[in-house]
Amino acid sequence: MTKTLRQRFADKEFITAPGVFDGISARIADRLGFPALYMTGYGTVASHLGMPDAGLASYTEMVGRVETLTSVTSTPLIADGDTGYGGLLNVQRTVRGYEKAGAAAIQLEDQEFPKKCGHTPGRRVIPMADMVGKVKVAVESRDSADFLIIARTDARTTLGLDEALRRGEAYAEAGADIIFIESPESEAEMEKICASFDVPCLANMVEGGRTPVVSRDRLVEIGYALAIFPATGFLAVGAALNSVYSTLKQEGSSVGVTAPMDNFGDFTRLMGFQEVWDFEKRHAQD
Fold it and tell me: By its UniProt entry, which Pfam families does this protein fall under (predicted)?
């Protein structure tokens, strides 16, 4: 039986969660045996809409992405729920919808609407008391205690680390299961964050972002319980596609492509065609 995320945290397991953003990335990550996957808002909005993660995707669009990803995976999915898509009633609907769609945890943040992606400039936060209300509603709206509430604050960048820590403490007291202080700017700040809370803390490892990307062992030493790598997958995909498409444009053929490519047959089976073939064989008419 697969452990719940709550059980893993209780057992002091460190969790690395890769960012997934569509059915292909989710299927690939799912087969590798991670303890959790992370539905990245940046990657999901970019993949689904071809637009920036700047509050443009609706609740309906995002909960649909949650349902798509959980339908093709068995690994617990941590899903980005942005600001809850509005006020307290919206938060209630979002939590219930994400849980019903199969997510194992939801991340909610204290940004003003329209939100902006973490590690980007111009992020502004709502009053702390307003976010405390959102966390309380999120906790009371879930059906199962195993559905975890991750409370994120973006206060570090504009208001400083002390304010971010003050908010994190308030969100933990409101019932958040995991605290996510976004965008610390040094390992010393990361250490201070983890030393400030009794609940698990989340590290957001963004290559090229504001926070140092460090090794697994260093994350454990610092005190984090969970690290998400939201951008790693789509940054790799972007580089590979740019390389492959450039070769096609220059040569008019895939002959000469240097980027690694999966075997077509293996990839076809990964995407579920073996089940289609087996179904057709079972139901073939004489």
Answer: PEP_mutase
